[in-house]
Write a structure and sequence with these properties.
CATH topology: Immunoglobulin-like
Strand content: 25-35%
Largest sheet: 8 strands, mixed
Helix content: 10-25%
Low-confidence stretches: 3-15
Number of domains: 1
Number of helices: 3
Radius of gyration: 20 Å
Order of helices and strands: HEHEEEEEEEHEEE
Structural class: alpha/beta
Mean pLDDT: 82
CATH class: Mainly Beta
Shape: globular
CATH superfamily: Immunoglobulins
Length: 183
C-alpha cells in the first residue's frame, strides 16, 4: 500500500507545475505553446523576425488604465499553408463503450508570438502566447505585472506554425526589453 501512495505522489509531483498556464490570445492553444516551449533552446536571435514591442527601452507604463501592448514582426510564411483536411468518417458505434476527449483546439497555422514578462520578486514569469498583434492584459494579470517595484523585463519569441509544427523559426529577441510601471 505504501508503494502505491509513493508512486501516486511521485506522478502528481512530476506532472504539476509551479508556474501558472500562459495567457492565450487569438487562436493560440496549449499544443502551440508546447511546440514553442520545445523549440525555445534552438531559437535564433533575430530582432527583425522576433516580435518587436511598440515600447522604447526603459519606457514607463501607467498603472491605470491597463494599457494595450502592441507589437510587429516581419515574420511571414515561405509557402502557402496546406488546405484543410476533412475529418475521417466516424463509425456510428464509436464512443458507445468508452467516451473520447474532445478538448483539443484546431491546430495553429500562421505566425505565433510568445512573450515572457519577468516581474521583480516573482518566481514565475507572466507568459502570453498569441496569434494576434496586440494584447490587453486582464485585470488579474495586470495586477501581477504591476506588483513590486523595479524594472520588468520582457523577452519575445516568434515562429510560423503549420498545423502546430514550426515551419519557420523560431526567432527570439537578442535581449530583454526593460520597462517600469508608474506608481
Amino acid at each position: 500500500m505504501r508503494w502505491l501512495l509513493f508512486i501516486t505522489g511521485l506522478v502528481f509531483t512530476a506532472c504539476s507545475s509551479k508556474c501558472p498556464e500562459p495567457q492565450y490570445e487569438g487562436k493560440a492553444s496549449d499544443e502551440a505553446y508546447l511546440t514553442m516551449v520545445d523549440a525555445e533552446s534552438r531559437a535564433t536571435a533575430d530582432d527583425a523576425k522576433a516580435p518587436r514591442l511598440d515600447l522604447a527601452e526603459g519606457a514607463t507604463l501607467p498603472k491605470s488604465p491597463v494599457p494595450t501592448l502592441r507589437w510587429s514582426s516581419t515574420l511571414t510564411a515561405k509557402a502557402a499553408p496546406p488546405q484543410p483536411r476533412s475529418p475521417p468518417a466516424v463509425p456510428w458505434y464509436r464512443g458507445l463503450v468508452y467516451s473520447e476527449a474532445w478538448a483539443h483546439l484546431p491546430p495553429v497555422t500562421g505566425s505565433i508570438f510568445w512573450f515572457k514578462f519577468a516581474v521583480p520578486g516573482e518566481q514565475c514569469p507572466v507568459e502570453m502566447i498569441s496569434t494576434r498583434n496586440e494584447w490587453t492584459p486582464p485585470a488579474d494579470v495586470w495586477a501581477k505585472l504591476t506588483a513590486g517595484t523595479g524594472a520588468r523585463q520582457v523577452t519575445a519569441q516568434s515562429a510560423y506554425l503549420t498545423e502546430n509544427r514550426i515551419t519557420e523559426g523560431p526567432y527570439r529577441t537578442s535581449g530583454a526589453l526593460s520597462f517600469s510601471i508608474s506608481p
